[in-house]
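Subject: sequence -> structure tokens, single chain

Hey, anyone have a minute? Need the predicted structure for the following. Not urgent.
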Amino acid sequence: MIVKKKIIIILLAITIGGVLAFFTLSRIERKNKTENVITLTVLQTGVFSDYENAVEQKESMNNAIILEDNGLYRVIVGASTNESGLSKIEKILESQKIHYYKKELTVLESDSEQFSKYNLLLEKANSEESVLLLNQKILESMELS
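Reply:
Had a minute. Here:
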């Protein structure tokens, strides 16, 4: 009888330990997955289910790209990983009377390496010409990824 109780206690301890280990490892795995992404704020002028409509809107803009997102085509005219750079782009768009919608996108950190240097420069840019050029480079980097 005493041996049977010891075996039950040992089996119970192993089961509880296994369950705790499983949840701990799955939590660590989820944390590692989320650390490999960054949030990027984009300025979107339109979203279309028809690609040709998106192309038409893109061509009416000075500088824009089209991103495909689950069968929808988003026309993007600005993007930044920080608020300082984004506000500079917004001021220019507002002065040009371009209406936009802010949208957050999650991108893989490896994809962001291309345009992260442009975002740092955008944050420090002072002239409208510099802001527009850096925004163009950011958009081109996004389009390639």
